[in-house]
Design a protein that fits this description.
single chain, 15 helices, globular
Length: 376
């Protein structure tokens, strides 16, 4: 089965990293190529390093309609059995191009949809109407959580057109030997006996990393280690400087060695309330860290006993200050046992289910052989 994954861009981000992991772990019967409309960043490099073909379509903006015939030609030339789109712009152009190219098995994954926003941007009537029109060009929309499925229903997408297939993490990669943390801390300039609060994600307002910066004002020895890049870097840097905690806030940018960096942390904090899944929270749990979070649909859809190391808090400075003070000044002595939630969301399991979905949709769209319609 030949599958073309179409995505808006391939800079580091949750949806982009999820695509990389999914392609890596799909069943051997599924042969994937990837098309990016724009911005072939670090994830494109990682895909190519693993032998995956990445097509760059050089789209210049949201209304660059010239990308459509290029994508149609690519799909026809590639003779793909399935076209699978990711993110809003790719969903619009990719589903239409697939239909024009004659591909019948077309689906999209909805990674970041909320009641009034999509991918962090407000949704008006026009955007919503365009989204729903494009949705009808596919067979199925995959929701990464029950929360996203509920939003799709509220938007008017029929339940029979929605499949809930959660994101996944590469659980095995987070089993970093605990004795490596001292070396990781040394490279980062962090004392071995410091208490390190970690955060992972794009530096955007919705992640609310400013809450953690402000929390440091009553935590005089605590270091905040933030892994990620984005437009809020300057604002976070200025906030930390203004509060007098700049020397203890490490914004180390986009990194490929997240498992090693998690091993240097004592607790993972995720104050965002806008998550549609909560990958960073699961990665923290996989690394054996206690986790403080303000919104993780992935955990909210499981029994509390499946993630005993996770605690949900209001997304306020006072709540995080109180919870971090309760941890005490000493660093984590040993990692926590890996909870059942991690195995539940292992990417190997998720990718296998996606492969089954491709096959099921493909079978449903195959023409019925002559003579079979009437039972002859």
């Amino acid at each position: 089965m030949r599958v073309l994954q179409v995505i808006t861009g391939l800079a580091a981000g949750g949806a982009e990293q999820q695509l990389l992991l999914t392609v890596r772990h799909l069943p051997p019967s599924v042969e994937c190529e990837v098309a990016t409309l724009t911005n072939p960043g670090s994830v494109a490099q990682a895909l190519r390093a693993e032998g995956v073909t990445v097509h760059e379509l050089a789209m210049r903006g949201n209304r660059d309609l010239a990308v459509l015939p290029r994508l149609v030609r690519l799909i026809r030339r590639g003779r793909y059995d399935v076209v699978h789109t990711h993110l809003y712009r790719a969903g619009l152009y990719g589903r239409l191009a697939a239909r024009l190219a004659g591909v019948r098995t077309v689906l999209a994954t909805e990674h970041s949809l909320h009641a009034g926003t999509i991918e962090g941007r407000p949704v008006g009537t026009g955007v919503k109407s365009l989204y729903l029109a494009a949705e009808r060009l596919g067979l199925t929309t995959v929701a990464v959580s029950g929360r996203v499925a509920g939003t799709l229903s509220d938007w008017g997408v029929p339940a029979q057109r929605v499949a809930v297939l959660p994101n996944g993490i590469e659980a095995a990669s987070f089993a970093v030997p605990w004795d490596r943390r001292t070396g990781v801390r040394r490279r980062l300039g962090i004392a071995a006996d410091a208490l390190v609060v970690g955060a992972v994600g794009r530096l955007v307002p919705g992640k609310r990393f400013d809450v953690l910066v402000q929390a440091l004002t009553v935590l005089p020895e605590v270091v905040l280690l933030v892994v990620g890049e984005g437009p809020e870097r300057a604002a976070l840097t200025e906030l930390a400087r203004g509060l007098g905690v700049g020397a203890r806030v490490l914004l180390i940018g986009e990194r490929a060695d997240v498992p090693d960096l998690l091993s240097a942390m004592d607790v993972l904090a995720a104050p965002s309330v806008e998550e549609t899944f909560g990958l960073a929270v699961l990665e923290g749990l996989a690394a054996g860290l206690p986790v403080l979070h303000s919104g993780c649909p992935a955990l909210e859809e499981l029994p509390a006993a499946d993630a005993p190391g996770a605690r949900k808090l209001p997304s306020t400075v006072a709540a995080y200050q109180e919870a971090l003070l309760a941890l005490g000044p000493s660093p984590l002595a040993v990692p926590l046992p890996r909870p059942p939630a991690v195995a539940h969301y292992d990417i190997v399991r998720t990718a296998a289910r996606l492969g089954e979905l491709y096959e099921r949709l493909g079978q449903a769209e195959r023409p019925v052989p002559a003579g079979r319609e009437s039972g002859r």
